[in-house]
Amino acid sequence: MIKEWATVISWQQGVAQLRCEQRSGCGSCHSSGSCGTSILNKMGSDSEHQLKVESRHPLVPGQRVEVGITEGSLIRSALLVYMLPLAGLIGCAAIMQAWFNTDLAAACGGLLGALGGFMLARFIARRIGNDREYQPVILQIALPPSSFYLRQDNPSER
Fold first, then answer.
1. What stretches of the chain adopt beta strand conformation (E)?
2. Contact, 41 vs 32, CB < 8 A?
3. What is the pTM of this model?
4. What digits encode the pLDDT tens for the residues 128-153?
């Protein structure tokens, strides 16, 4: 199970809207100033994602929850998104190269194959997107922010 903490934005009628902040894998080492991955992360936009998750328990805005998704569904989704267009690109480029024996035909075939792979991946993703197996679930619910209070002892009373 892949787990991540998220913040509740709202909860209405059993559906919680959550905000997940993407954490970078770098930034803690000493060479983060000259690292290519660190530089690319700084160039990109702030990665903040919102998602809706079913929750039987009432939640309040600002409350933290742990969200999880199974590894298998995540791997299948990644294979669908990355491998299907790549297979289309390579397969159609190879077929066009074999038929016409020109680089231009192979390039056009590769572009058409990649586009077809993206469209097929999008179609499949829409069909399986509502399956419960591919939906994130709430694993843990932290106490709401209103349940914490700060008690300050008066130093003169000691």
1. 2-12, 15-21, 48-54, 64-69, 137-141
2. no
3. 0.68
4. 988 989 999 999 999 887 776 667 77
